[in-house]
Structure formats: C-alpha cells, structure tokens
Design goal:
By secondary structure, this protein is of the alpha/beta class. The protein contains 13 helices and 10 strands. It has 2 domains: 157 residues, Periplasmic binding protein-like II (D-Maltodextrin-Binding Protein, domain 2), CATH 3.40.190.10; 128 residues, 3-Layer(aba) Sandwich (D-Maltodextrin-Binding Protein, domain 2), CATH 3.40.190.10. The longest helix is centred in the N-terminal third of the chain and has 23 residues. The N terminus is likely disordered.
C-alpha cells in the first residue's frame, strides 16, 4: 500500500473514531449518525470572524478531523447571543465578553470556551510627506506622533479634540456587533465623548465601516482579522495603534440550554481544544490560539 493511501486511511479512521466517540457519549443512534443533516450545526458567528476567514478555516478543520459540518450564520454578536439564548442556534462564536458573561451568570448559556485572541486596531490616515506624485497626507489628530507608549484612551481623546475643531472624522460601528461593544468600552476609558458631525456612524458591517473611514479620511477601530483581509484595499489608511492591552479581545464559543444538537458538545470541545488551537495558529493573520 502506498504512503498516500495509508495517510488517507489513517485520516478516515481518525474521523470515524472521533465521530463515533462523540456520538456515543451523546447517546446518538447509528441511523442518526449516518444522516449528514443530523450532524450539521447552526452556529452564529460574529461577522468579523467570518469575514476574516477564521470561522471558515475552523469549520473546515473540524469537518476534516471529525466529519461534523457547521452552517455558519454571520451577524453582530448582540443579535446572535439572544438567538442562542432562545435556542435558535446550536452554538455561537462571538466577541462580546460582557454580554456573554451576563448570560452566563443568569444561566442562560453554558460551556463558554475561549478559542482565539484578536484585537481592535486603531486605523486612520497614513501620514506621509509630499512627493512629486502625491500630496502630503497628515495625521490630523496626531495619533502617530504620540509619545509615551501605546495609550488607546489618549489616542481617542486626541481624535475627539481634533474632531471638535473640525479637523478629524471618526467612523463608529452602530450595529450591535462585538466591535461596537468593545469600542464603547475604549471610548469610555477616554473620558466624556463629545458628539458632532465629526462622529459618523456605520451600521453596514465591518467592510462597510472600513470603506467609509477610507473615503472620509477618518479614523476607526477595526478587528485585526478584518484589517488583514481587507486593509490592502484602502492604501490611504494605516494601523496607528494596536499594542495597548486594552485593545485585546477574545472570541468565545458557547452553547445554549434550550437547544440540544447531538454533536454540539463535541464540536465546541474540539474547536476549543488542541485541534482548534492548531487551526487558529495555522491560520495566522494576527490571531492567536486562546486558552
């Protein structure tokens, strides 16, 4: 037998073993285990994690090793988590730690596991000197020139001050996404937030938000994986700050009490375990395995 054939048999055997073990632990009959539809899980996923490609990569790795298939349903975490609590999803992969923790304390969800670490990057006009081909482009809030180490609160305060002088624009997420919840916490750390024409809202998702910031020559907070996937499309923007620990975020998987898919426990355990960690590490793009 060729080495390729042996590898194929080994892979097939591993999938069968893992699937049989998981289904056996969950008390699923043979007829249900043979039904592909019975093994497809409805999993809500924060749009940023889908758009970046992380969720599809994790789903492919899970299917390869266990035979379980995921139907990813992308949306803002603030809409997905109530759906999870109602039992309309078999699991959720979200970026809203405070909301997740609140549901956990109320015993409305369970089995919450960290999967991937990411961050919100502050992007804005890439400062450059004038050339024969391009005019100078300033960093109107002076974020790139701030000294004293990474300080996201101070950077946002500078943007707000420049905005009030009509010198800068900031584009904020207005949909109930994980990015919005995390963004609001960072603005709170920056102090009272003035409002005005300088503060623009975008409810069209992370890709639309990034495009609006580029068009307006403004600033925005963007999830790291989204920037890795789409940043090159907007050469007028650059990452100005991403190293403040307060910008870090962890994506979690969790299950509801009101839905009982026979393979959900196995899927969450695999994605949050060594197999999922390897898949996150292999994907890269600024993501790191959590846990």
């Amino acid at each position: 037998m060729s080495s390729a054939a042996r590898r194929s048999l080994s892979s097939s055997g591993r999938r069968a073993c893992v699937a049989a073990l998981g289904l056996g632990l969950l008390g699923v009959g043979a007829s249900r285990a043979q039904d592909p539809a019975a093994r497809r899980l409805a999993v809500g996923v924060e749009t940023s994690l889908q758009l970046s490609g992380l969720a599809p990569r994790l789903g492919a790795a899970l299917a390869r090793d266990t035979g379980l298939a995921i139907d990813w349903r992308a949306g803002p975490s603030g809409l997905l988590l109530p759906q999870l609590e109602r039992g309309e999803l078999d699991a959720a992969f979200t970026l809203a730690p405070e909301l997740e923790a609140s549901l956990l304390r109320q015993n409305l969800i369970h089995d919450r596991r960290p999967v991937a670490e990411t961050a919100l990057l502050l992007v804005g006009p890439a400062p450059r000197k004038a050339t024969k081909k391009q005019p100078a482009q300033p960093d109107p809030a002076g974020v790139a020139a701030l000294e004293g180490g990474p300080d996201i609160a101070r950077a946002l305060a500078h943007i707000a001050a420049a905005g009030q002088r009509a010198e800068a624009v900031y584009v904020a997420a207005s949909e109930p996404s994980g990015v919005r919840f995390l963004e609001q916490a960072l603005w709170k750390a920056a102090g009272p937030q003035a409002v005005g024409a300088w503060l623009q809202a975008n409810g069209g998702g992370p890709a639309a938000l990034l495009a609006q910031a580029a068009q307006a020559g403004g600033y925005a907070l963007v999830e790291r994986g989204v920037w890795a996937a789409l940043g090159a499309r907007h050469p007028g923007l650059a990452v100005l700050l991403g190293d403040d620990p307060r910008q870090r975020a962890t994506a979690h998987l969790m299950r509801p009490f009101r839905a009982h898919h026979p393979a959900a426990r196995l899927a969450v355990a695999w994605l949050a375990g060594p197999g999922g960690r390897r898949a996150v590490a292999g994907f890269g793009r600024g993501y790191r395995a959590a846990g």
